[in-house]
């Protein structure tokens, strides 16, 4: 007779896909909660807690901050990836990169300073015994 109103499930914004289509040029600052696929050109900055894919033919010239990135196109500027940065064979990167993990396919162009964050294990000291 008396029932609690059904609670709607919260939608996660990170599952939503934002797309900058080929032939589109955006100049400015973008921030969002979902994932981004860039097939056109972005001149400026993009910040998202989701994944960013720069397709072959896509170009980002500026600053990019994201959780994971998969790059097939061109990137010039400062790139901050908390998780995995994957560079496909057609990728062309120039600038500064800070990433948690880096995966590079043969053929990718990577002309950048790179800093790795996260799972770095300390080297053993000379006075520690080595196991045989």
Folded structure, characterized:
The chain has strands at 17-20, 25-31, 35-38, 41-47, 51-54, 59-66, 68-71, 74-87, 92-104, 109-116. It is globular. Helix content is 0%, strand content 55%. The protein starts with 16 loop residues before the first strand and ends in a 16-residue tail after the last strand. Strands 1, 2, 3, 4, 5, 6, 7, 8, 9 and 10 form a 10-stranded parallel sheet that branches. Residues 7-12 have low confidence and may be disordered. It has no helices and 10 strands. It is mainly β and 132 residues long.
Give the biggest beta sheet.
10 strands, parallel
Give the integer mean of the pLDDT values. 84
- Please provide the ordered H/E string of secondary-structure elements: EEEEEEEEEE
What spatial form do the alpha-carbon principal axes imply? Answer: globular
Count every beta strand, where a strand is a DSSP E run of 2 or more residues. Answer: 10
Number of helices: 0
Radius of gyration: 19 Å
The end-to-end span amounts to 73 Å
Keywords:
132 residues
How would you concisely characterize the structure shown here?
With 132 residues, this protein is mainly beta. The protein is 0% helix and 55% strand.
List the helices and strands and how they pair.
Blueprint: E1 17-20, E2 25-31, E3 35-38, E4 41-47, E5 51-54, E6 59-66, E7 68-71, E8 74-87, E9 92-104, E10 109-116
Parallel strand pairs: 1-3, 2-4, 3-5, 4-6, 5-7, 6-8, 7-8, 8-9, 9-10
